[in-house]
Amino acid sequence: MSPSVSFAIIGNTQIFLERRAADVKAGRLFPSLSRYFDGAVRCCHTYVVAIFSKLHKSISKRRNPAPTEKQPSGYGTILTSYVDCSGQFIDRHGVGITALATIIIAAFTCTLWIATGQQAQFAKDAFIADKRAFVFASGIQPLYEPNVVTGHFDWRIGPIWHNSGDTPTRGLRIYTDGFLSNIPISPTFDFNQINPNVPPGSGMLGPKMSSGGGQAPHMPGAALTPQDILDIQAGTKFFYLWGWARYSDTLPEAPQRITRYCSQRAIH
């Protein structure tokens, strides 16, 4: 082994160990192992430099013997020195070489284990995002009812809920509310309030399924009259519709999710 080769090995080993040390300090390995690997990397680096320095000196002595010694010339000198020094080196440092190789293999194995675990988590997250139930308000559903006093039709409005996922909902709870006002809604309005007389309803939405859920104004309160609708169109009155849907899905360890909506309805 020539001096240039030995120093190349030292350099490549040093680069590998420094990169593993950077991974440890950056937290890319488990935090509980950071302290151990940091010390192990420093010990390995010191040991590699020491043993390859000894090998380099041994080869140099073999290639440059005392003037009184008779040695083969040319490639014979290099080959003889290499075989002799390599044998002595391995014989003297066999235990250290084995320990060093074991540490390096362990570092590679740990890195591969972490990468495999992360890849499995990415695949799980992608599967859940693609297959889980996802419920949202996709539109409105106007419902009319006859007014026996005026002879006209009054109106109530509710949302259309849609599940765009590939799995059904579980434990679905839906709440819908709304009100008619002569002024715009207050910025501090509490959308979490629930009418105690009209509690949230339960149900189920299958994959790619749509369904109505709730209506406002709540019964038995007054519905929107034709005059209310004309005032909304003229901008002298305001009608707001809001609500939420709480649900889970059928996938393992699925958390509870919630979708909220609020809109000012410009009825045409």
Succession of helices and strands? HHHEEEEEHEE
Give the CA-CA distance, first to last residue: 89 Å
Largest sheet geometry: 4 strands, antiparallel
Multimerization status: single chain
Share in β-strands: 15-25%
Structural class: alpha+beta
Label the CATH architecture of the largest domain.
Sandwich
CATH class of the largest domain: Mainly Beta
Query: What is the number of E strands?
Result: 7
User: Number of domains in the coordinates?
Assistant: 2
Strand neighbour order, sheet with most strands:
4-3-6-7
| Radius of gyration, whole Å | 38 Å
Low-confidence stretches: 1-11, 29-33
Shape: rod-shaped
- CATH fold-level topology of the largest domain: Immunoglobulin-like
Average pLDDT, all residues: 75
Question: Percent range for helical residues?
Answer: 40-55%
Number of helices: 4
Please provide a written account of the structure:
- The chain starts with a helix and ends with a strand.
- Helices cover 46% and strands 23% of the residues.
- With 268 residues, it is of the alpha+beta class.
- The N terminus is likely disordered.
- It has 2 domains: 129 residues, no CATH class; 130 residues, Sandwich (Immunoglobulin-like).
- The longest helix has 57 residues.
